[in-house]
Every structure is written in structure tokens, then in C-alpha cells.
Design brief:
- The chain has 254 residues and is an alpha/beta fold.
- Helix content is 45%, strand content 14%.
- It has a six-stranded mixed beta sheet with strand order 2-8-7-4-6-5, sandwiched between helices. The chain has a two-stranded parallel ribbon with strand order 1-3.
- Strand 7, helix 7 and strand 8 form a beta-alpha-beta unit.
């Protein structure tokens, strides 16, 4: 059944494109999912029909369930109201997760790129890019570094996705880079509280291809969250993907 649904999704996405030439659909489920993901990653921010969306919802929710959903209630805090968790943020059920976005705010357009932006958009489904595209069209300009936007999460188990644009570090780290990264965390936290979100999971903003040094980024993240929580009641999960980041946050949080 899942394979038939995936085949339907692929054929729908291919039917929208006249610029790809003949595309051979692989036999294996894994390779078919890779093709589906690639087609989603390059799909413009346009509406899909209801039949497609229903099939995509069913397929993605089953895929996420198969990966295994982690509930915030099952995590142990490392400090009061603060958690450290190493895992796949697209499987985390909490109030909101944070996406490290680019200034275009419509996701990663590189097929199957392993960045968090790509993963979140892939498993949320095509409605997320469409929603982000509408927000950016209404705004009329690219998202400034240090700011944030909130959207529904669609097929992800969390309630919302908060998208923020982190600073890009090329060469020497400056005070302005640090100020902008702090602004990312504050913008996300303020947006979460304003929307009644009780828990938020942060990825390691700007530390990947954006080049922010991991140790300093984690220090800014922890200090900003602790400062914010002094006057706001919100639980915070620091979500890491690498062992190095886990060790850094463990040391900072004790």
C-alpha cells in the first residue's frame, strides 16, 4: 500500500513538470522515496490538489511513525525546564520546532540535501513551502537575519515550525554575528510565547554550512534561553544531531 501511494505521489509530481524529460521510476522503495523527495525539493511554492495532499499526508505520517515519534513528556530535563536531546527533529512531538532557514524562507531547493531545512520541508509536505511562499510574497522582501516566522507543521508531529535565518560566518567571528545569533533565539522564543506555544525545540542554528563556531553558538544559545526563561514559562529542548554538539551542550548545561 505504501509503495502504491508513493508511486502515485511521484507520478503526480512528474505530471506537473514538462522540463525534466523522461524520468525512470526505480523499483526499490528507498530509491523511489529519494526520487519523490527530489521532486518535492525542486517543486515551486504552488498549491497541490486535495487528492494529492490527502495521499501525501497519509504517506508522510506513516513514514514518520515508522521512524518513531519522541514525545517531550518522555524526555528527562537536564535542568529545570531545559532538555538536551540527540535525534531527528522531524520525529519530535512538542509545541514547536525551529528550522534553520535561508533568507528566501521557502526551504532548501537542492534535491535530497541533508540540511535541516530540507528535512523539515520534506517531511512536513508541500503545503509548508506553499505557506512560506505566501508569507514571503506578502512581506515583499527576503527575511532579515535574526528574525523569525511561524507556520503550521502540517505532517510533522510538532504543533508549529518556527523558521529563522541565522548569520553566515565567513572568516573571523564578529560581535555582529553573535548579536544576530542571539536575536534568532530571542525572535523564536518571543514568537512561540506570543502564539501560546509551551515547548520549543532548537536546532544548532548557523553551525552547519553557515559556519558559526559550534562552541560559541552553543554558549549564546544556552545563555539566551536561560535569560528568556527568567521571565517566560516555556520549556526548551536543545536538539543536536552530532556527538560533538551533544558534548558541548552537556558541558554547558552540566
Amino acid at each position: 500500500m505504501a509503495n502504491e501511494k508513493l508511486l502515485y505521489l511521484i507520478n503526480y509530481l512528474l505530471s506537473e513538470r514538462s522540463d525534466l524529460g523522461k524520468v525512470n521510476i526505480p523499483d526499490s522503495q528507498d530509491e523511489r522515496f529519494r526520487l519523490y523527495r527530489s521532486l518535492v525539493n525542486i517543486r515551486p511554492a504552488v498549491k497541490a490538489d486535495n487528492e494529492y495532499l490527502k495521499a501525501e499526508d497519509e504517506f508522510l505520517q506513516a513514514e514518520i511513525a515508522r521512524k518513531g515519534i519522541t514525545y517531550i513528556e518522555d524526555l528527562q530535563p537536564i535542568q529545570n525546564g531545559i532538555y538536551l536531546w540527540k535525534g531527528d527533529i522531524t520525529t519530535l512531538k512538542c509545541g514547536a520546532i525551529v528550522n534553520a532557514a535561508n533568507s528566501g524562507m521557502t526551504g532548501c531547493w537542492q534535491p535530497c540535501h541533508n540540511c535541516i531545512d530540507n528535512c523539515i520541508h520534506t517531511f512536513s509536505g508541500v503545503r509548508l513551502r506553499y505557506k512560506c511562499g505566501r508569507i514571503m510574497q506578502a512581506q515583499g522582501y527576503e527575511e532579515p537575519t535574526g528574525k523569525a516566522k511561524i507556520t503550521p507543521a502540517y505532517n510533522l508531529p510538532c504543533g508549529y515550525v518556527i523558521h529563522t535565518v541565522g548569520p553566515i560566518v565567513r572568516g573571523r567571528l564578529t560581535q555582529e554575528h553573535c548579536r544576530l545569533l542571539k536575536s534568532c533565539y530571542n525572535s523564536c522564543l518571543e514568537l512561540a510565547v506570543h502564539n501560546g506555544v509551551k515547548s520549543i525545540a532548537f536546532c544548532c542554528i548557523s553551525t552547519g554550512v553557515f559556519g558559526f563556531p559550534q562552541n560559541k553558538a552553543a554558549e549564546i544559545a544556552v545563555n539566551t534561553v536561560k535569560e528568556f526563561r527568567q521571565t517566560n514559562d516555556i520549556e526548551v529542548i536543545f536538539n543536536v544531531f552530532t556527538e560533538k554538539d551533544y558534548e558541548i551542550y552537556s558541558r554547558l548545561l552540566g
